[in-house]
Specification:
Helices cover about 35% and strands about 0% of the residues. The protein is an all-alpha fold. It has one domain (about 5-125).
């Protein structure tokens, strides 16, 4: 059983690891548990390293330079993740970690329920994606 209501699943960059295939299939416990080291690469995430290791913040929105050059990583041709992570970090600052987490948990529960209905392991395996519930690429290990 997935434990989605865990503050450690909210990354310093604003992503929620509970949505990720790596978390849902048990290969990863999230960015914070891996100290910024993702599953596919052997390098620590630049955002994690800057925020947590260097500046000793929990979230990037605590930094006076937010959003910085490190967030360019979230810009791609398929979907502009930049806007989502910026909005997530703004929400975290405005409503707090508890309310933000509760909203993310409810959102991901709906995604998981949908995957069960469609008999797929994760949104990334769904033939109907993009859909009304998830218009951007699903989180998978980076």
């Amino acid at each position: 059983m997935l434990k989605l209501n865990n503050k450690k699943l909210i990354d310093p960059c604003g992503l929620y690891c509970g949505e990720c295939l790596g978390y849902q299939d048990g290969r990863c416990l999230g960015c914070l548990s891996r100290k910024g080291l993702c599953l596919k690469y052997s390098k620590i995430c630049k955002i994690y390293n800057c925020c947590v290791n260097i500046k000793k913040f929990r979230f990037c929105n605590e930094c006076k330079n937010f959003p910085c050059e490190n967030f360019k990583f979230f810009k791609n041709e398929e979907y502009d993740w930049f806007l989502e992570v910026i909005k997530n970090l703004e929400k975290l600052k405005k409503i707090g970690i508890e309310k933000f987490l509760n909203k993310e948990v409810e959102r991901v529960k709906k995604l998981i329920e949908c995957t069960k209905t469609k008999k797929v392991i994760h949104c990334s395996r769904c033939k109907d994606w993009p859909c009304e519930k998830l218009k951007r690429p699903p989180l998978t290990p980076a």
